[in-house]
Amino acid sequence: MAEPRNRPPLNLDAFKPTPVADPAPARQVAEELGFTTREGAVAVADARMYRRPTPRTAQLNVAIRPAVKERFWKLAYELEVASGEELLIRLLDAYDLQSRAREAVE
């Protein structure tokens, strides 16, 4: 077992707490020099603050050739869809419909 440490006795009576300074004189000098506040400027309202949250929380990244990307967005423009998601939903729905039609024929 370790032996107890031999510490010299400490006399801390000479240390006194620092008196609390009156902030009024410092505040007056600061105002005279043009320092009016310690807080930063109020944040400017950003347009992002007013946007409603969207249910879109997943992201789909697909590596494609530039020609396919151009074809995708050209089709989106022709169909006047608002987003790539909307076009993808339409394409998937059309595929499902075509698959069901094939199954019905067979």
Helix percentage range: 40-55%
Shape: elongated
Provide mean pLDDT, rounded.
Answer: 87
Strand/helix succession: HHH
Radius of gyration: 36 Å
| Total strand segments | 0
**SSE class:** mainly alpha
The largest sheet is:
none
Region (Disordered): 1-22
Describe the structure.
Residues 1-22 are annotated as: Disordered. It is elongated and about 100 Å long. The chain is mainly α and 106 residues long. It has helices at residues 23-32, 66-78, 84-105. It contains 3 helices and no strands. The model has no long low-confidence stretch (mean pLDDT 87). It has a domain at 64-106. The chain is 42% helix and 0% strand.
Task: Give a quick set of tags describing it.
mainly alpha; 106 residues
Write the layout of secondary structure elements.
Layout: H1 23-32, H2 66-78, H3 84-105
Summarize the structure.
Residues 1-22 are annotated as: Disordered. The chain has 106 residues and is mainly alpha-helical.
